[in-house]
# Entry
Amino acid sequence: MPLDRASLVPALKNVATRLRIDSIRSTSQSASGHPTSCCSAADLVAALFFAEMRFDPKDPKHPGSDRFVLSKGHAAPLLYAAWAEAGAFDRSDLLRLREITSDLEGHPTPRLPFVDVATGSLGQGICAAVGCALNARRIKSDYRTYCLVGDGESAEGSVWEAADVAGVDRLDNLCGITDVNALGQSRATMWAHDLDEFARRWRAFGWHAIVIDGHDMDAILSAFAEARATAGRPTMILASTIKGKGVSSVEGKDGWHGKPFKKGEELDRVLAELEKQFVPVPEGVNLHQQIAKPATRPASAPWPKPIAAPSYKAGDQVATREAYGTALAKLGEADPRIVALDADVKNSTFSDKFEKAAPDRFYQNFIAEQIMLGSAMGLAARGAIPFPSTFACFLTRAADFIRMAAISNLPIKMAGSHAGVSIGEDGPSQMALEDLAMCRAQPNITVLYPCDAVSTERLVALMAYHPGPAYMRTSRPKTPILYSADETFTIGGLKVLRESPKDVVTVVAAGVTVFEALKAHTQLKAKGTAIRVIDLYSVAPVDRAALVAAGTATGGRIITVEDHYAAGGIGDAVAEAVSDAGMCVHRIAVREIPRSGKPEELLDRFGISARHIVAAVKKSLVVSR
# Structure
C-alpha cells in the first residue's frame, strides 16, 4: 500500500541525505566533480525516484518506464547515487566515479543502461526530454518524462526552443524541474532566486508553472501530484534550492562549483554533519518496496514491410532532395518506427511527402534546429528511427547537438538539403560548404552523398537501419538518373562509373560533381585521354581498398572534386584513405566565399566544373612526367 505523507516524508528526507553523502563521498574519492550541485537537487531527486516515477531498477530500459533526463549533467554523481539507492547496482561502485574502467563518467552517457542520452553540454537534456515525451504519444504509452534542468543552463537558447515546441505540442506527459540554486560556475545566475522571473517565462511558453521550496519534501510531492493532474500542457516545477544544501560551510556560497571536499579532516567534518541530519522513520517503512513498477510492456512494433523499389527511368531529371522525400514516405508507410522532424522547410527538403503519408509521426519544430535534433535524440533513445531534415547550412546551428548525438551513439538520421554553390542564386548564407566536415569529424557518424534519385532512395533505406547516427547530403538541382532501379549500394561503398585499362588518372566525385566528372571524362576521351570516374556516395566510411586499387591502376594520380570547402570533405576523406599507400591527392574544391549566381556559373567560377577537372587532369600528367 502507498505510504501516507506522515511516513513518506521523513523516509524521503533520509534518502535525500544519503544521496548527498554518496555524491560527496564519490566526488571526494575521485578528487573531481560537482558535489554542491548534487546537494541542491537531492530532495527533488529523492522524491522523484522513490515517490513519483514508475520504473524497474533491474530493467531500466523497459519501454513502459517513466523516463528521467538529467539536463544538468554535471550533477551526475546524484543520478548515480539515486540508481544505486534504488538497487540498480552496488553502492560501493559509486567510489569508482570518473575512473577509466568505470561507466560512471563525469557526465552521464548511455554506456549506462539507465541513461537515454548523453548530457553535460548544458541546455540539451530538456530537448531530448521533449523527444521522449513525443515517443510516448507515438507508441500510445502512458509513461511520463521528467527532466531536471539547471537554472544556469536556462540561459541557453535551446532550453527555450524546447519550451516553445513542448508548449505548442501540449505535452502534458512532460514534467520539467528547474533546480534554482541561484549560483552558476563563476557567479550568480541570471535571475538568482527570483522564481517569479522563471515562472513568468515558462507560462509565456504555455507551460503550467509551479513555484515551490525545493527542500520542502511535502511541497515537492504536492507539485508532482499537481503536474500529473495537469492536462493539455507540460509542467515546469520551479524549485528554490540552496547550492551545497546540508553542508553549512558551503551552503549558498559562491566559488564552490566543481570543487570536491578534500579527503581527510574536511570530508570527515562534512560527512559527520550530514549524518546528524537523519530523522526518525516509522517502523516498517521501506521505500524500495514503494517504487511503482511500469505498466505492461507495450507491444513490439510490427516487422517492417518491404519497401518499393525506385520507379525512375532513364532520361528523368530528379533532385536528390525530392528523392529523399519520396524514400522517406515509403519508409514511413513500411515501418511505424520511422518518424520525421522538420524546421519549417518541409516543402524544400520534401519531407512533406512523409507528412502526407504519416501525419501523426511528423513533428514540426518551426525554425528551431536545436530542438529538432535534440528531440530526435530523445525519440531515438526510446526506439523510434527519426529523420530530422533541413537545409544543410542550418544544421550547423545545431553542431553541438550533432556532437552529443555522436557521444550518445543514437541512431538519428539527419538530412541536409541545398548543399554547396550549386544551389545558385540564394547566395553564400544558404550554401552549406562545411557540413561534410562537421559530420565527418565525429568518428561514428555515417556520411552519405548520393548523386541521383535511385542512389538516394537506396541509401535512405540503408541509413535507416544502419546502427548509430547518419547524415545524408542532398542537392537542390535536378540531376539525371544514373543508376538502374535494381542497382545495389552499401554503407562504405562506392561506384566506379568509368573504367578502362588505359586510365591515367582517377577522378573521385560525389553529388553534383559526379556529373561534372562524367562531362570531363567525355571531353578527355575525345582527345585520347582516359580517366577513371568514381562516385563516392559513402563519404564516411569510405572504401579504402577500392580507392587504393583505383589509384594504383592510374599511376597513383587521384583527383577529388567537391561542392564543399577544401577542409574536411571528400578530398580529405580520400587522402586519409590512400595516404598509407604512398599516394597524394589533388583536391578540387571551393576555396573562397562564394556569391549569388546561376548554378552552372558558380560551379565554374569557383573551380569545380568539368573545365577545371580537365585542366587538373592535364596538369597532373605534365607534373608526373
Q: What stands out?
A: The mean pLDDT is 96. The chain has three domains: 5-290, 317-480, 495-624. The two ends are 88 Å apart (CA to CA). Residues 5-30 form the longest helix (26 residues).
